[in-house]
Design a protein that fits this description.
Layout (H helix, E strand, L loop, with lengths): L3 H7 L2 E3 L7 E4 L3 E5 H13 L9 E5 L10 H16 L2 E3 L6 H8 L6 E4 L13 E4 L2 H8 L4 E4 L2 E8 L8 H12 L7 E6 L8 H10 L7 E3 L4 H9 L19 E6 L6 E3 L7 E3 H4 L6 E5 L6 H11 L9 E5 L3 H9 L2 H8 L2 E2 L19 E4 L15 E4 L2 H10 L31 E2 L29 E8 L6 H4 L12 H5 L10 H10 L3 E6 L11 H8 L2 E6 L4 H9 L3 E5 L13 E4 L2 H7 L3 E5 L4 E6 L4 H9 L2 H8 L1
Parallel strand pairs: 3-4, 3-6, 4-5, 6-7, 9-10, 9-12, 10-11, 15-16, 15-18, 16-17, 18-19, 21-22, 22-23, 23-24
Antiparallel strand pairs: 1-2, 2-8, 5-20, 13-14, 21-25, 24-27, 25-26, 26-27
Helix pairs in contact: 2-3, 2-5, 6-7, 10-12, 10-13, 17-18, 20-21
The protein binds alpha-methylisocitric acid (MIC) and iron/sulfur cluster (SF4).
């Protein structure tokens, strides 16, 4: 009587007991990295001195930093390629596509575990993998054969019934899920999809849903592996990778939520959070300045062909700019073969390379105050590269409708314009060409690692001190995302140069942060951050911990924190604390001087930590949710320091 999550975990737990809320160490079968997090991950992997990766499969993708203005990106790519050759890692070259889309196409296997240094790794749940996002250092540890630690999850069944109506899509399903669960409060949960409705969803549609589960903050999302999965793998020429994986009839769940697909309508996430959900109809016919179709959420063959069919014979509205970034080289080749590419180009799309591009604000930033419709998964403030822009997340169908009308349009209304719903099916056989992967040879230890001037060593953390004495450098509210903490976009090329990248910390929240933190650090004091609920939402980027560590941030005191960011803080030796009494948050102001003593003893004895507010002459209590393993890491000054100690 096991559910799918229990089935996979039972064959992967190596340490700990399967008890809800307790930490377990699991074996990782596959890893993936992308270039923006990968460079640091491999620098850390190199420091571990392991001759070759110990996983069944590790893939290094280049898909984020592909703009190449200046030498930095190209240096990183070359570094990654040489590391892959040396350590037995498959290298997916720039141009091959977005990691999650490509991994699903070519490597995803039901029943396996996948750890990726990107928060949207759960895309792999679309083929029945337990696919989890993590910081680069955790992925490096997994490549070195180490375990990955998660809280044994609460499994929430999302029971799908009915069938999607015409013009209503998988994106609308996940936006509905976001409406129900919001972007906070789901740490330690996994969404397992089931019910009669799943049979009606193809693998790319399932992957859209598991991809954006990341926005709810769950550990991962997963679909069963069934006949639909088999068809997809067969179409990829990988039928032998299929195995059935379904929940037992009497499987138990911590919660069951029913969604009737037949009742859903086109939805959107309004600025500036994927959790601000509304129906497309409710928005009204506002003018749309930009439409962006692509990203790891919606860039599959099915998405692109659907857009192509809608746009066949249509032209782009004069007031709107339009970009399309197909998810992979495979998608491009197949839509060329099947005639879709022609319709998209002919309609007026600017074709971007198969990469993250607009999604991460790395290109195509919209105009001042723009309304931008995007098929991606995040619309955080400033993420598009234009702080004043308003980004709405929508399905490819809703995006295509705006291309034609130049305004927010419920795609069902396209029928009034004589455009009928194109019920695109995935091909029985995709055209497949794996030549943009470089597969590792048997032994290549003598490979010289390429290190251009952009590649710097990761800064080392210092062992934890017994006291923290310093200033509240920044006080922030609820739902501060990693995009707020450290922006990506045009700044992402400094990922391998921590001192430079740190200059942009909290840029979108308070551009004076860096200089103030620097001054405090130089005066010998510690920097402290005070935050509300759900601190560190969003990406897996460990730079959101690494750069603060570099700037002398010693503790983050928050009402609650998201899973990946919490783990990253620990990995880099920053103490993550929670308010015992949330009202204490209101009694602290930015620039207050705080003093925390007896940290080591309190952590060792499991006692709460007393913080003195020197400025206000008050005292308050902080708690923490740290396993013994995490306490050891913190005391050692982070994971790398800890590994050096035990080696
Ligand atoms: C994102 O979508 O925010 C990213 C860019 O893919 C990040 C990873 C990164 O910051 O490099 C993520 O989702 O983890
Ligand atoms: Fe790339 Fe955007 Fe997906 Fe992140 S969310 S992996 S930036 S496409």
């Amino acid at each position: 009587m096991a559910n799918i999550v229990e089935k996979i975990l039972s064959t992967h737990i190596v340490e700990g007991k399967p008890e809800k809320g307790k930490e377990v160490g699991i074996k990782i079968d596959q890893t993936l990295t992308q270039d923006a997090t990968g460079t640091m991950a491999y620098l850390q992997f190199e420091a571990m001195d392991i001759p070759r990766v110990k996983t069944e499969l590790s893939v290094s993708y280049v898909d984020h930093n592909t703009v190449q203005i200046g030498f930095e990106n190209a240096d990183d790519h070359k570094y990654l390629q040489s590391v892959a050759t040396k350590y037995g890692i498959v290298f997916s070259r720039a141009g091959n596509g977005i990691c999650h889309q490509v991994h699903l196409e070519r490597f995803g296997k039901p029943g396996k575990t996948l750890l990726g240094s990107d928060s949207h790794t759960p895309t792999g749940g679309g083929v029945g993998m337990m696919a989890i996002g993590a910081g680069g250092l955790d992925v490096a540890v997994a490549m070195a054969g180490g375990l990955f630690y998660i809280t044994y999850p609460n499994v929430i069944k999302i029971n799908l019934t009915g069938k999607l109506n015409k013009w209503v899509t998988a994106k609308d399903v996940i936006l509905k899920v976001l409406e129900i669960f919001t972007t906070k409060g789901n740490v330690g949960c996994v969404f397992e999809y089931g019910g009669a409705g799943i049979k009606t969803l193809s693998v790319p549609e399932r992957a859209t849903i598991t991809n954006m589960g990341a926005e709810c903050g769950v550990t991962t999302s997963i679909f069963p592996s069934d006949e639909v999965t088999k068809e997809f793998l067969k179409a990829q020429g990988r039928e032998e990778d299929w195995k059935q994986l379904i929940a037992d009839e009497d499987a138990k769940y911590d919660q069951v939520v029913d969604i009737n697909l037949s009742e859903l309508v086109p939805m959107t996430a309004t600025p500036h959070s994927p959790g601000n959900i509304s129906t497309v109809k409710e928005i009204g016919e506002i003018k749309v300045d930009q439409v962006c179709i692509g990203s790891c959420t919606n860039s599959s063959y099915k998405d692109m062909m659907t857009v192509a069919e809608i746009l066949k014979g249509q032209k782009l509205h004069p007031n709107t700019s339009f970009v399309v970034a197909p998810g992979s080289k495979q998608v491009i080749e197949n839509i060329i073969k099947d005639g879709g590419f022609q319709s998209i180009v002919s309609a007026g799309a600017r074709i971007a390379e198969a990469a993250c591009g607009f999604c991460i604000g790395n290109s195509q930033s919209p105009k001042t105050d723009a309304v931008s419709l995007r098929t991606s998964n995040r619309n955080f403030l400033g993420r598009s590269g234009t702080k004043s822009a308003n980004a709405y997340l929508v399905s490819p169908e809703t995006a295509a409708a705006a291309v034609i009308t130049g305004k927010f349009t419920d795609p069902r209304d396209l029928e009034k314009l004589g455009i009928m719903y194109p019920d695109v099916k995935i091909p029985a056989k995709f055209y497949v060409d794996d030549s943009m992967f470089l597969f590792p040879e048997a032994r290549k230890e003598d490979v010289k690692i390429y290190r251009g001037p952009n590649i710097g060593d990761p800064p080392a953390a210092t062992p934890m001190q017994d006291k923290i004495e310093g200033t509240v450098t920044l006080k922030v509210e609820d739902k501060i995302t990693t995009d707020h903490i450290i922006p990506a976009g045009s700044k992402m090329k400094y990922r391998s140069n921590v001192p430079k990248y740190s200059e942009f910390l909290f840029e979108v929240v308070d551009p004076t942060f860096h200089d103030r933190a620097k001054k405090i650090k130089e005066s010998g004091k510690d920097n402290i951050i005070i935050a509300g609920h759900s601190y560190g939402q969003g990406s897996s980027r460990e730079h959101a911990a690494l750069c603060p560590m570099y700037m002398g941030v010693k503790a983050v005191m928050a009402k609650s924190m998201e899973r990946i960011h919490n783990a990253n803080l620990i990995n880099f030796g920053i103490l993550p604390l929670n308010f015992k009494d949330e009202s204490d948050y209101d009694k602290i102001d930015q620039a207050d001087e705080l003093k925390v003593s007896n940290i080591k003893a309190s952590l060792k004895e499991g006692k709460s930590i007393i913080v003195k507010n020197i400025t206000k002459a008050t005292e308050f209590e902080m708690t923490y949710n740290l396993s013994d393993r995490q306490i050891k890491i913190l005391l050692a000054g982070g994971t790398l320091a800890m590994m050096k100690k035990t080696n």
